[in-house]
Write a structure and sequence with these properties.
Layout: H1 4-25, H2 36-43, H3 46-66, H4 72-86, H5 91-127, H6 138-149, H7 151-173, H8 177-181, H9 197-211, H10 215-222, H11 231-243, H12 245-261, H13 267-278, E1 282-286, E2 292-296, H14 309-323, H15 338-356, H16 361-371, H17 394-409, H18 415-431, H19 436-442, H20 447-467, H21 471-478, H22 485-499, H23 504-521, H24 528-540, H25 545-561, E3 571-577, E4 582-588, H26 594-604, H27 606-615, H28 619-634
Antiparallel strand pairs: 1-2, 3-4
């Protein structure tokens, strides 16, 4: 028996023996191989290499400059993003930048948390309550970019984050000596929608990786955290199901089994588990007092129609097992739902049991009846919208709410009561595209309130018209006079984008109208002016490229005069506050960001684009534009 080496040697000799004959039969095929260096030279594009060298130098300079940025958040973000941009060309430098960014992110997170706590105490002193937006988690942002490039580095950062949170979690869950002596003061179970901080961070990272298209790496990070029922875990499984239903369903089945075995599972756990099958993007939970909480995270994920009967049966077994557990005495009830919440979860899920697992319905009705004496009247109100949210079609709910509002109108005694009812009826009618919505708004007697409601409603209609690609309706609403200047400028640019395909000349006219709105009606010191001008330049690129460069120069001048313009994270806000409610809409506006605009400029004329970047005085806008150039030039073709 020949050794592998001897076999290879013999085969090589055989090929050599036949080579001359092959060469004689086909002399044209015999071609002298080019040296590797010659091939490399032939394949190298000197102009492309120069472009790459230019942006690599720009990014390295930016990364060093970022160490001296005034804003701690920007210091961390820019160094992490520079590392991400340089990873393919300078992995060693990139890894060092990631580590540097991590240190900056940790310091920034600590400072943001300190400021948040100070603001909370201040608001509590001044008005007895507090309200604020949570700052971004910079370590999570750095972790996401690092993990996408290097799983080992991602795990290292995740371990550092877990370690930093561990003592904090232990302090939060450890009862004091006095509490231990008084069982009635023992803390209730955490809000089940959120996982513990360490698990939440891991799942958030996994979601970001999946959104980036890296499902395999997302699963690497998520799997260790999928043993705990939470809104984030279920969101991950729902998104995974859209890519791999079998992988998601198998993990959901494991989650069901663990929920049954977990003694802390309660009625809210069952409600959350139901969402995966019946309301994927909406999580409904209930408090001890009977108050409901709805957490929604998106659309485009309808209730799955291809669920196996076995998996559905396992859910109903798990839910019934949890809901029928013996309840502790009221004074010892540490569940997140309590009596009121348990009653309402059963009321919410009973129609599903009746449809899919009718054999378990009688026992649940008996439990609900037993809870009746211990629940409030509000918890037993069958008209509570949270009992059907996500389970009953939205248009049907809206019809019910309009009818309910009109019925209550008969009993209203004051102008304020009637106005509040008309506001509710108007928005419910809008949801179901009922033409009476405008009629309801016109009947609001308070002129100031009527104007604010109409402005909010027109912005909602504009968003809907953009989604429907109805540029003429977008244009009509933009010219209606109810939108704010920045909303109108954005609406006009969107109308131009939608009209450009069929009527490019008309689209240019609409952009000219948006230009007037941006320059004449938006304050020169406001970050909204450069946002609007960037959006106009972005759309102008497809219609009149020379003018796009000119408008960009205007945007740069506006950026240098504006306070707070970052060049990224473009958003539009709309808020309506009345005596009885507060409504707020936040929507992304990518056209406000510099990234798309400078990516196009990099493809057309990099040298000129670099010149524009150098004219940006703000640290944030300059960094955003520089990194956009780098990503465009360095990305793999």
């Amino acid at each position: 028996m020949m050794s592998p080496l001897r076999t290879l040697f013999t085969f090589t000799l055989c090929l050599a023996a036949f080579a001359p004959a092959a060469a004689q039969q086909s002399p044209a095929r015999a071609k002298k191989p080019e040296p590797a260096a010659a091939q490399a030279t032939a394949e190298t594009d000197p102009e492309e290499e120069m472009r790459r060298a230019t942006v690599i130098s720009l990014v390295n300079n930016l990364a060093d400059e970022a160490r001296m940025f005034r804003d701690a958040t920007l210091r961390a973000r820019v160094q992490a993003r520079a590392a991400d941009a340089l990873w393919e060309t300078e992995p060693g430098r990139a890894r060092a930048l990631f580590r540097r960014a991590w240190g900056e992110a940790q310091a920034a997170d600590d400072e943001n948390e300190r400021k948040l706590e100070e603001e909370k105490k201040k608001q509590l002193r001044e008005r007895g309550s507090f309200s604020f937006s949570l700052p971004p988690s910079l370590r999570t942002e750095v972790l996401r970019l690092a993990a996408r490039r290097d799983h080992k580095l991602g795990e290292e950062f995740l371990a550092l984050m877990d370690r930093a949170r561990k003592e904090e979690e232990e302090d939060a869950t450890r009862p004091s000596a006095s509490d231990a002596a008084r069982p009635e003061t023992a803390p209730r179970r955490r809000d089940p929608v959120e996982a513990t901080p360490a698990v939440e961070k891991r799942l958030r990272l996994a979601l970001q990786l999946m959104n980036d298209g890296d499902t395999a790496r997302a699963l690497q990070f998520a799997d260790p955290a999928l043993g705990q029922v939470s809104g984030t875990a279920l969101q991950f499984l729902t998104r995974l199901r859209a890519k791999d239903a079998q992988a998601a369903d198998s993990r959901y089945a494991v989650l069901l089994a663990r929920a049954i075995a977990d003694p802390s599972s309660d009625a809210n756990t069952a409600s959350l588990l139901s969402s995966y099958l019946f309301s994927p993007t909406l999580y409904i939970t209930f408090s001890h007092e009977g108050a409901s909480s709805g957490n929604g995270w998106g659309d485009g994920f309808p209730a799955p129609a291809d669920v196996s009967p076995l998996l559905r049966a396992r859910f109903f077994e798990a839910a019934a097992s949890i809901l029928l557990r013996p309840l502790p005495p009221p004074e010892q009830d540490r569940t997140s739902s309590g009596r009121n919440g348990a009653y309402m979860v059963i009321a919410r899920l009973l129609p599903l049991f009746d449809q899919w697992a009718a054999d378990k319905s009688p026992a649940l009705r008996a439990r609900q009846a037993a809870l009746t004496a211990e629940t409030t009247t509000g918890a037993r109100d069958s008209r509570n919208q949270s009992l059907t949210a996500g389970l009953v079609p939205e248009d049907q709910q809206a019809r019910d709410r309009v009818a309910d509002a009109l019925e209550r109108l008969k009993r209203a005694r004051t102008t304020d009561e009637r106005d509040a009812i008309y506001v509710q009826a108007a928005f419910s009618a809008m949801q179901q595209k009922d033409p009476r919505a405008e009629e309801f708004i016109s009947k609001i007697e308070d002129s100031d309130l009527r104007g604010r409601v109409r402005a909010y409603a027109d912005y909602e209609r504009t968003q809907e018209a953009v989604r429907a690609e109805d540029w003429q309706e977008v244009l009509r609403l933009a010219r209606g006079g109810n939108l704010s200047p920045i909303q109108k400028a954005w609406a006009l640019t969107e109308a131009a984008r939608l009209a450009a395909k069929d009527e490019p000349g008309r689209a240019v006219e609409i952009l000219d109208e948006a230009l007037v709105e941006a320059k004449e009606r938006i304050d020169a010191a406001s970050p909204e002016r450069p946002s609007a001008l960037v959006a106009i330049a972005t759309q102008m690129l497809k219609l009149d490229r020379p003018r796009a460069w000119e408008v960009t120069l205007d945007a740069i001048k506006a950026s240098n005069s504006a306070q707070g313009y970052t060049g990224e994270d473009g958003r539009l806000f709309s808020r309506l506050e009345t005596k009885n409610m507060t409504m707020m809409t936040t929507s992304g506006a990518e056209s406000f960001d510099l990234a798309g605009l400078f990516a196009e400029f990099a493809r057309e004329d990099l040298t000129r684009a670099v010149g524009l970047v150098r004219n940006l005085e703000g640290e944030g806008p300059r960094a955003a534009a520089t990194l956009a150039l780098a990503r465009t030039v360095l990305q793999k073709k």
